[in-house]
Amino acid sequence: MAGVAVTTTINGDEVEFLCQPDETLLDVLRDRLGLTGAKEGCGTGDCGACSVILDDRLVCSCLVLGAEAQGRQVETVEGMARGDKLHPLQQKFLEHAALQCGICTPGFLIAAKDLLAKNPDPTEEEIRFGLAGNLCRCTGYDKIVRAVQDAATVMKGA
Amino acid sequence: MGFDPRHLERNFKSVGTSPIRPDGVDKVTGRARYGADFNMAGQLVGRVLRSPHAHARIIKIDTSKAEKLAGVKAIVTAADLPDLTDGNSEMYAILDNCMAREKALYDGHAVAAVAAVDAHTAKRALKLIEVTYEVLPHVTDVDEAMKSTAPVLHDTVFTEGVEPKPDAPSNVAKRTQYGHGDVEAGFSQADFVVERSFKTEQTHQGYIEPHACVANTSPDGTAELWVCTQGHFVYRQHCAELLGLDVSKLRVTSSEIGGGFGGKTHVWTEPVALALSRKAGRPVKLVMTRDEVFRASGPTSATSIDVKIGARKDGTITAASASLRYSCGPYYGMWAELGAMTAFACYNLENVKTVGYEVLVNRPKTAAYRAPSAPMAAFAVESAIDELAKNVGIDPVEFRIKNAAREGTRSSYGPVYGPIGIGPTLEAVKNHPHMKAPLGKNQGRGMACGFWFNFGGQTCTDINIGMDGSVSLAVGTVDVGGSRASLSLVAAEELGIAYEQVKAVVADTSSLGYNDMTDGSRGTFSSSMATISAARNAIQTLRERAAQTWDIPVEDVVWEKGHAIAKGEKYGNLASLSLKDIAAKSGNTGGPIAGHSELVADGAGVSFATHICDIEVDPETGATRVLRYTVVQDAGKAVHPAYVEGQYQGGAAQGIGWALNEEYIYGSDGRLQNPGFLDYRIPVCSDLPMIDTQILEIPNPNHPYGVRGVGETSIVPPLAAIANAVSNAAGVRMTHIPMSPPRILAAIEAEQAG
Amino acid sequence: MRYERPSSMEEAVGLLTGATGTAAVLAGGSDLLVKMKGGFIEPDLVVDIKSIDGLREIRETSDGFSIGSAVSCAILGESAVLRKAWPGVVEAANLIGSKQVQGRCTIVGNICNASPAADSVPALVAAGAKASIVGPGGKRTIPVEEVATAPGKTSLTNGEIIDAILLDKRPPHSGDAYLRFIPRTEMDIAVVSAGVSLTIDEEGVVKSARVALGAAAPTVLLVEEAARILIGSKADAATLEKLAEACSAACRPIDDKRGTVAFRTKVAGVLAKRAAATAYARAGEK
To answer: pTM (2 decimals)?
Structure first.
């Protein structure tokens, strides 16, 4: 199988990689680029643990081919903090104890970031439906929803 | 270590606060490393070939074509994992489950494995392995498996626990019995008797992180294993035994764990990864796919339970009995026994009898799942209790309060209770505003109680004090939900220093003594006992160093608020020494300062909870909506209240999923039809309301701070609480879990048809 | 496997026609990549059509709307004109998968996957939508209900690609709606579903109607008897009960992991009457 050469932008940095044509963006991120923040919980788009933002669209990176990233912008959890300053969502997830095992956390943070970018003042119901593509088995979602609500308040004030 | 009653008046400084966890920043920035996030130079990719048959004799495995494929470095079958278990049937079951020997016993049972240079090659190699099977009749249903006509999984299994010893092999591996009094006499005194049968389907723990490991063996007889596990010392023991390694030469490092809930308490693919690495002479990374996780790991038992409870007109229960049949997968486990022990544990009963049957079926080996076996038994019992209360004409909460176990009650499984929380949780529920909130059309309210034993066990902890006064806390219980935070709080409390001064890590198996795994809600309970003990040992050294510095007897030095203080008039002008002061001089006063502890944490306090929930049922479709949910549970002492709440909420959410939608669905071919998160439906964010919690603190007399385990009990009441709510909303008693819309609609229509 | 990203329809058709082995079209990939992951399909060629001019556009034409086959359902949901004209079609398309899947999935992919449970298809069939097809033999247009012929099978021939879905302009007083039954609130495949589109006159009497059911038969079912019951009525309770009975009677479902024959048959009628009530209310608002 001949490799595909791809040039893309990840978290603001231009990145070049060679991947197999049937390799997913998730595999490229994790296995070729060392960005293991996105997780594979299912590989079929059902858990959202591999969520990334691709050209302003929230996607499951397990359902995108690495080759499709050519010329596009990819945003992962590794790009959320600015230096040592956490993104308000990251900070609020910590303060609200919105993670237990933490495996779903990167996906939730990216999905919540996308949600608040499109809807800065969501209702509880909008948050719950907006994050329905991300499975969490530990928290019962209560503290996650509260963390997103609190982060939205902080971000509106910013 | 007994409870120190002075703690009741004590003003805890750290314990009882909810600071940010020490592993938090890594987890929100993507830096935390889970099972599949670790790599070694030169590592190969491992993949497992699994049986497509529910029950089949393995006639032949031909690996010759796969071996010839370029890039394939090792192939292993059962022949590469010889039986070294020496008559230990539990270990043999684990070995046989890791790699099928004579028969494939369920859809998904491993039969061979490959290590290759990349995933593509490994996948292609699996297709080139030719397995010749003789397909055998199978049985997946627990009741079917008990019939004399059912295909027998093992002709070596004869039911244990019955007299006389049976002369024919059976799928019923064992019968166990618990209870006291005379139930027949008790039922004869009853004015009302409820007798019903219940079924629950098999569920999976559903952790989001699939099993993953990297194994590296060396020709010198040493090996290392990086793995997501609830117990790396246990995994070390299992792997060493199964591969014939010296225990201390296998170093196991537990990664961050992406959920376990009991499902990562014994080995699955790890011995296979080590065997592949041994054969290939290179590190091997083996990560299960989601499909494999469902088909071949986890799940809990499917059950079939009969309950009979009788009461007098005044609401006193006169007798209670239950017969509990639990599926074990193909290997014996004590699942029905745990159900039999827990079924009536909430109640003060004069006459009680429970009988458990461990049933072998062609499904994956049953693993522990959060308070294993208790939720199903509670579903059956608490449903019957609700119905009985209704028949007697007493409010269900009052009925339970009247019959609740209390201090001094002889439990249905034997021991006599100390101070316990069932009564207080019921009183709290009785007075909770949730119980008085109005309900709308097609809405129903249900409540139910739950019990779990909680475990203690072998525990070892180290405290090392840095020369700058910072403290490293090394624990051996894997952190599944924030225990590094709670244990740091305990260390800070004992040492009298700030939480931020402590850094907790989970040490690998070569750096600390043996620890049992994080199960039975023991993580914070056991490791806090060991941490307190280690801290007290460190304080002893700190006092000695201060005494040495002052040149006074150590007996005159006390430790208060993080300082050594010389006690007595004669030392009036001696300024106290802080932990930091003493640590800074440690190089000149006798060297490093540390505290060590190894103990068996006896006396885990039993745990009780009572839940309330409101459900709306669409009578035309059977659809349900959870409107409101409240958890009341005794924590003994909540060390980190936010994470205690998290345990309550998480257990409730898992219970809600189990009650309403989660189930293993097998086809008539014995194959699992829903091995993925699409059709194995765990609750999503929009399925749930906020989950209210109320933490009660009835101190555990066997822990210095009164701590009880909190992780498991929260999954026990939901099945019953929701069943009671749905039954009240739909006007028909639900007896089959999950109460999926088709089952609810069928029940409503059957009721309407009369 | 080879990955190609053609920039024109001709090139795409040429690639598919000339392919040896298995070829697959990639738009959103939310079905294709899942099938590849599970090993159900191992394509030798994947043709990514997202770089083809015009395929990522929604155009208003003199006849109505043309939705390019690479338009994601998220984009579809953001189209105010489409939401106004065909709310039922848009809500159906927006029910497919999660927010993550919405960012990728397309209605054409949903149609070509040929699942009887596809969410957008009953709504499109009720709407009378057509598929515009380009192939080695030129262009052709067929009703959406003629694309899927059986579960997983379509009437497209070698080298053919759907380039757009065509929806008519909406006459005044028209409304459509789509409802599906799932056990959870999100993330499930429809157990059974119903799409209804209708137009009423000034008096509120239904002039024309189409009713389609999903997951009730091997392909999406157009229930003409249900439409006949609606036409001439004011969608009153008695009519809706008759409509429900007609829909239930038309069902030919199966028992599977997602639902039973009895459940699907009953609930198909319940959803159809509820969707008809919504469509009727919407028609009255315009």
So the answer is: 0.97
